[in-house]
From TrEMBL:
Residues in HTH-like domain copies: 46-103
Name by which UniProt lists this protein: Integrase, catalytic region
Record organism: Pseudomonas syringae pv. persicae
Pfam families: HTH_21
């Protein structure tokens, strides 16, 4: 059984049984039990600062940052934080890495039913307004997607 869970059980059972007996049953030194109780209630300002920074970086990445990237970002800021400490900070602050699934790219097997490919990638034209090209893209604007459409003529 893990140590923090053993301590929780000892605390609950200490009303009915002696702490010395419970520590021996759980194979925990009594001094370690009391040291843990003192340490558990103490607030470490450095750790709290790291937790706040982890929350900020995780939010900045829109929830996609995991322990490895969090560790690298904190190291870039001059903090000495390894991957496992970053993982513990994430667990203590209830942060989880959520990766979006990539959109499937649909390869066109059949010819388009909407527009024929008249150019066959031959973009050289002799006069203006013979060939028009266009494209559309999606841009993330912080809270929603915006669409950008561009059209132009080849000369």
């Amino acid at each position: 059984m893990r140590f923090p869970r053993s301590v929780t059980l000892i605390e609950k059972l200490s009303e009915r049984f002696a702490v010395t007996d419970l520590c021996s049953v759980f194979e925990i030194n009594r001094s370690r039990y009391y040291d843990y109780l003192k340490q558990r209630d103490r607030i470490d300002p450095d750790r709290e600062r790291l937790k706040a920074e982890a929350i900020r970086l995780h939010a900045q990445s829109r929830g996609s940052m995991g322990a490895r990237n969090l560790s690298a970002a904190l190291k870039a800021q001059g903090e000495s934080v390894g991957r496992f400490l970053a993982g513990r900070l994430m667990a203590e602050t209830d942060l989880h890495s959520c990766q979006r699934r990539p959109r499937p790219y649909r390869h066109s097997v059949v010819q388009s039913r909407f527009a024929e490919n008249l150019l066959e990638r031959q973009f050289e034209v002799s006069a203006p307004n013979q060939v028009w090209c266009g494209d559309i893209t999606y841009i993330w604007a912080g809270t929603h997607w915006v669409y950008l459409a561009v059209s132009y003529t080849h000369l």
